[in-house]
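Private note to self, pasted from the team thread so I don't lose it. Backbone tokens:
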């Protein structure tokens, strides 16, 4: 559970196979993922002596929202508010002239490749044969709906010229490929 590598763009660290961050003021250690037909997530709050593991059959099962809610309940940090209300729902608009700076193919050679394309004044993330509209939250952050429900944040690292150099999806970093 000892952090070994910082992931400053998403505000956490990675250990040997485990992500280490802070959840509701508590140190959290966990790991999760999804692939065709399966999803899994595990998280522990070591200082509170609680943890949860969730497994699901189904394409693109993303279980982080379930894990977060169960950890809230187990740690005694339950709130009467629905979990969705704790997520930031900021509105942000990118000028149409800046959209082309985000276009390109992004790859993690050991994992997968995605593409950002433009449809009118909308950026689209193409991955695994599907198109996902990207809703801007800031100049470097976008919200993308997950096929199984919920959403995820895509963080785009901009170079000095303001062009996308890489993107971060969960723990995966993908570099922009040369044209």
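Design output:
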């Amino acid at each position: 559970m000892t952090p070994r590598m910082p992931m400053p763009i998403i505000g956490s660290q990675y250990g040997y196979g485990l992500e280490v961050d802070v959840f509701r003021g508590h140190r959290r250690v966990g790991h999760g993922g999804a692939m065709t037909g399966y999803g899994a997530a595990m998280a522990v709050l070591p200082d509170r002596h609680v943890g949860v593991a969730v497994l699901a059959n189904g394409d693109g099962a993303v279980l982080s929202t379930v894990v977060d809610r169960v950890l809230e309940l187990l740690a005694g940090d339950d709130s009467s508010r629905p979990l969705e209300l704790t997520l930031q729902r900021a509105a942000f608009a990118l000028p149409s002239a800046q959209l082309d700076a985000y276009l390109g193919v992004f790859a993690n050679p050991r994992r997968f490749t995605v593409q950002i394309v433009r449809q009118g004044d909308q950026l689209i993330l193409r991955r695994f044969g599907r198109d996902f509209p990207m809703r801007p939250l800031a100049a470097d952050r976008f919200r993308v709906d997950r096929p199984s429900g919920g959403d995820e944040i895509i963080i785009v690292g901009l170079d000095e010229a303001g062009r996308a150099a890489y993107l971060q999806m969960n723990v995966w970093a993908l570099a922009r490929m040369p044209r």
